[in-house]
Amino acid sequence: MTSDNRPMQALKTRYKLFYILSVVALAVLFCANFGVIYTLILTPPEDPGLTMKFVYLIMVGGFIVIAAQSLLVFTRFISMLGRERKAMEEMNRQLDELSVYDDLTKVFNRYKFESVITRELENVRRYSSPLSGIMFDIDGFKAVNETHGYRTGDRLLTNLAGFIDSKLRSTDYVFRWRGGKFIILAPHTDIDKAAMVAEKLRKIVGHKLFGGKIRITLSLGVIQAVGDDSMETFLHRIQSALTAAKNKGRDCVIVTRN
To answer: Are 202 and 218 in contact (CB under 8 A)?
Structure first.
């Protein structure tokens, strides 16, 4: 039994013990009351008023026990509702994570990208806040899968996503797009700074061995959002920048300025 379950198990044990004791007490009071009344009927005492007071006292005791039982059941019910509420909150949190995170790499997915880019493009339009994007792709990722196997390719994607995410600011976003493609959104960052980030990532990834044996390179395209950008035009421009990097020979950064 885990340490988290022990307090809950102890609480359940106390509930059962208290309930059993209350049932026993109620049974004892019922039998005592029945005995007194039965005796009162068979052999009426000289002072029935005193005997009736004793009967009433037993009845009051019984009502107290019943009230205690009701309070115990009510407390138990409230406790169960609290645990169910926490379980529902945890389930909702897990569902929220599943809806916005990529199952494999644990970075954000395309669904999350849509909500973030919509909000950030609105900030560009309303406040002229700079927003830059970097789209990168693993060069020859298909060959990695064919040479080392898809499980190795999956581990490579996971390790790369975590490595890239660790090198960015907490305000930046990393999204898995498809296959070996990822998008980085950098709010409050102009294109020159984003280009420096892209070049830094290209160099450090190129010098790292993934899985202790696989060396990869990245092609990266960099753009900055403009006021009349929609999600579609932003994606078109950033994918065009990545395509230009691929066409240039890969393992390079292409910066497309407006």
So the answer is: yes
